[in-house]
């Protein structure tokens, strides 16, 4: 078990914690059925029909799995 040998000051603790920042995900903009859709790159995406029902998963234009 790692146990600190000395007490860390309040300012050092807060400085260390402030280094952890959330980053916004990089999104890819695509057009589907006349609407703009943003998705994560290199991920399979769900293809939906006009009512919004999930049909299958697609990756790089190919069907990879049924939903």
Characteristics of this structure?
about 70 residues; mainly beta; 3-stranded antiparallel sheet; 1 helix; elongated
Give a written overview of the molecule:
Helix content is 13%, strand content 37%. The protein has one helix spanning 10-18, and strands spanning 28-32, 35-39, 45-48, 54-59, 62-66. The strands form two sheets. A three-stranded antiparallel sheet has the order 3-4-5, with no helix packed on it. A two-stranded antiparallel ribbon has the order 1-2. The mean pLDDT is 87.
* Oligomer status: single chain
Number of helices in the DSSP assignment: 1
The average pLDDT value, as a whole number, equals 87
Q: Which range best describes the helical content: under 10%, 10-25%, 25-40%, 40-55%, 55-70% or over 70%? A: 10-25%
What is the percentage of strand-forming residues? 35-45%
Order of helices and strands: HEEEEE
**Secondary structural class:** mainly beta
Number of DSSP strand runs: 5
Q: Major β-sheet, in short?
A: 3 strands, antiparallel
Blueprint (SSEs and pairs):
Elements: H1 10-18, E1 28-32, E2 35-39, E3 45-48, E4 54-59, E5 62-66
Antiparallel strand pairs: 1-2, 3-4, 4-5
In short:
The protein has 67 residues and is mainly beta.
């Amino acid at each position: 078990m790692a146990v600190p040998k000395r007490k860390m000051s309040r300012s050092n603790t807060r400085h260390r914690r402030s280094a952890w920042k959330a980053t916004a995900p990089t999104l890819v903009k695509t057009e589907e059925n006349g609407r703009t859709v943003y998705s994560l790159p290199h991920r399979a995406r769900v293809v939906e029909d006009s009512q919004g029902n999930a049909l299958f998963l697609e990756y790089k234009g190919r069907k990879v799995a049924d939903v």
